[in-house]
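Late entry, evening session. Most of the bench is empty. Finally got around to the prediction I had been postponing all week. Sequence below, unchanged from the version circulated by S.P.
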Amino acid sequence: MVSDNNEKNVLSDEDVRKLVMARLSVLSSDAIISLGSEGSFTRDQLVESVERGDKIGEKLAEIQMEWLRSFKEVVAI
């Protein structure tokens, strides 16, 4: 993690990719994940998309980071 001038922790793109891939790695290899209008994908397809940094990988990273932010807020209560 890197700190900016405001002492706020910020994850690099590489850190986010590693985090998302770690979260995907705990899913069953036959899991199917639907990303709305983007379609349905296997765990391995999503891992490849995150590694490539393509549109689907970026969308999944956004979704995962939003979930983690909301989880952090609930836990902090």
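Two things to note before I forget:
The radius of gyration is 14 Å.
Helices lie at 13-25, 43-52, 55-76.
Will write this up properly tomorrow.
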